[in-house]
Amino acid sequence: MPDLVQRQRRATVERNTAETQVRASVDLDGTGVANVSTGLGFYDHMLNAFARHGRFDLDVQATGDLHIDAHHTMEDVALSLGQAFDEALGGREGIVRMADAVVPLDEALVQCVIDISGRPFAATSMEFGGERIGEVPTEMVSHVLRSFATTAKITLHVRQLAGANDHHIAEATMKALGRAMDAATAFDPRIAGQVPSTKETLTT
To answer: By residue range, what is the domain housing residue 108?
Structure first.
């Protein structure tokens, strides 16, 4: 087995501001174990689904100004988690790099396409019927995806192909993100030690 595969792809990020205190740890080669506490039940549920279906081990502990609203906490957790993925990936040698996943949840169907490109970009297309799912504003689902893509330095496209239930749409989205990230971060033994780019870098 190449030395690259044996490198521990783990990272921990701490983000402390006047609005939030976040500690996020990730192990890219885990088994889907998540220990998540953000103070927002549905957000915890989303992150647990992301970890379980991406086979990532996550530990996310966050406190924030929830007396104002959910925005700062959700955004800063997503930024911290994206940064942890970026750091855990290191130089990107030997990874598949691009992947996609289509995930159903009853009537909902969501597609997620990933390129671990080093170029932050996110395009999302989802239609929610209500303003909230639990304590989480539905508009924050797209904002979380954009924030994660920014600090993870990935290109991300998410499309809702079908769906009527807001909970199902959001959960299918996070499951699809997890599965696509799992496939994109996996090792391709044919290019062990090589960066999958004609530029020979995915970090600059």
So the answer is: 3-191
Q: What's the structural domain count of the chain?
A: 1
**β partners of residue 155:** 115, 121
29-42 average pLDDT score: 97
- What does the DSSP assignment read for 74-143? HHHHHHHHHHHHHHHHTT-TTB--EEEEEEEETTEEEEEEEE--S--EEEEE---SSSEETTEETHHHHH
CATH number, domain of 143, equals 3.30.230.40
Q: Is residue 144 part of a domain?
A: yes
Q: What is the pLDDT of residue 129?
A: 97
Instruction: Kindly tell me the burial class for residue 94, based on how many C-beta atoms sit within 10 Å of its own C-beta (0-12, 13-18, 19 or more).
Output: buried
Could you tell me if residue 196 is inside a domain?
no
Structure tokens at 32: 């889907």
Residue 2: pLDDT over 50: no
pLDDT for residue 7: 67
Instruction: Specify the DSSP class assigned to residue 187.
Output: B
